[in-house]
């Protein structure tokens, strides 16, 4: 016959060492996930910027094709229903874009647009060069 020796009551719960081990594992997972999250956000901004610039440039070209001259402002594209609204620049979070005019003449129309954001993207390209 086997006898059980009862030394004391078994306590339920976690030891301090187990809690520290769990905290270390969680912090390792967070340290891996956070940089990837920021990288994904940056990629999404660049993708949105490229798409918005493509659309604005296409609309400017359509305006030129229809009228024979470039629009005076992005607002005129909206007023004449070429676009519903001026897109927000995802890098500056503003509706202001750098308007490139023909031969730097203030009275000429917009022939191109660029982002006003300073700096470079994760690709190493200046935001103004997209």
TrEMBL record:
InterPro entries, per database record: Bac_GSPG_pilin (IPR000983), N_methyl_site (IPR012902), Pilin-like (IPR045584)
Example GO biological process: protein secretion by the type II secretion system
Coiled coil, from the record: none
Membrane-spanning ranges: 12-34
Listed Gene3D superfamilies: Glycoprotein, Type 4 Pilin
Domain of life: Bacteria
Keyword line: Membrane, Methylation, Transmembrane, Transmembrane helix
GO CC terms of this entry: type II protein secretion system complex
Alphabetized Pfam families for the sequence: N_methyl (PF07963)
NCBIfam families documented for this protein: IV_pilin_GFxxxE (TIGR02532)
Protein name according to UniProt: Type II secretion system protein G
Protein's organism: Candidatus Ichthyocystis hellenicum
Classification of source organism: Bacteria, Pseudomonadati, Pseudomonadota, Betaproteobacteria, Burkholderiales
């Amino acid at each position: 016959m086997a006898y059980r020796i009862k030394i004391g009551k078994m306590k339920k719960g976690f030891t301090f060492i187990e809690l520290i081990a769990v905290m270390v594992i969680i912090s390792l997972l967070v340290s891996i996930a956070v940089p990837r999250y920021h990288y994904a956000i940056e990629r999404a901004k660049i993708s949105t910027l490229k798409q918005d610039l493509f659309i604005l440039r296409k609309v400017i070209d359509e305006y030129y094709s229809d009228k024979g001259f470039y629009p005076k402002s992005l607002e005129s594209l909206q007023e004449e229903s070429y676009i519903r609204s001026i897109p927000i620049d995802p890098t500056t979070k503003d509706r202001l874009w750098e308007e490139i005019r023909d031969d730097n003449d203030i009275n000429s129309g917009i022939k191109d647009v660029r982002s006003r954001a300073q700096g470079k993207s994760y690709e190493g390209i200046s935001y103004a060069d997209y």
